[in-house]
Design goal:
It contains six helices and no strands. By secondary structure, it is mainly α. It has a domain of 76 residues.
């Protein structure tokens, strides 16, 4: 009698594990690249103060701001950032373009959205707004 109970418990346990695995696998089967949506990246009317500065402060200031100047690059404030925007160094570095040191250094590349925001801001004259 004890062996029958163990056998039944074992069958139920195996059935439960298999059912859980099937549910888990099927839950992900409907995900496709087309169905996964992300919020759109709005690059219209980029403002230095509300769109660009927060990206630079979050990703660059640990080495190039707040009084820290690494390898001669200082991004602290609009005027200093504008120099790097105008000479192409900012775009080259954050885009990981050939001939530029990829930035942020030893950290993940900025999101495509953040890069596109910065590029849009520069293409529109990099206004101090």
């Amino acid at each position: 009698m004890l062996n029958k109970k163990h056998g039944m418990v074992r069958k139920l346990l195996h059935t439960g594990i298999i059912a859980t695995a099937i549910i888990w696998i099927s839950a992900c089967s409907k995900d496709s690249e087309d169905e996964l949506t992300t919020s759109p990246c709005n690059t219209d009317n980029m403002k230095y103060s509300t769109d660009i500065l927060p990206i630079i402060q979050t990703n660059c200031y640990s080495c190039h701001g707040n009084g820290i100047v690494t390898n001669g690059i200082d991004l602290d404030g609009y005027t200093k950032l504008r120099i790097q925007a105008d000479n192409g160094n900012l775009t080259g570095a954050i885009s990981h373009a050939a001939g530029y040191t990829p930035m942020p250094y030893n950290a993940p590349k900025l999101s495509d959205c953040d890069i596109n925001k910065i590029k849009s801001w520069i293409q529109n004259g990099a206004p101090d707004n």
